[in-house]
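Side project, low priority. Logging it here so it doesn't get lost.
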Amino acid sequence: MTDPNDPILQRLDNLEAQNISLRKKLNSIEILLWVLLTIGVIFAIALLGIIGWGLAGVLSIILCFRIADIFDKQFQNSAQSASDAYFNHPKTQDRAKS
């Protein structure tokens, strides 16, 4: 039989208790690290989403201004063509002469 007062067995019991305590601490630290990693990944994805939406917004505004510029040039060209057609029409020139 083993002697419960044996110093080697007592030391072994102490080491086993320390091992269990360290495993519990390590487990809680590991869980904390996983939680922090998960939160970090969520924030990174959210940040990328915000940057992406911001970039999409800026690009859409630029595109709207480009389209407006194209329509403005088209309108100016058609207005100039209409004006030229009116003032160069023979009836208009006859009225201007008389």
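Brief comment: The radius of gyration is 41 Å.
Revisit when time allows.
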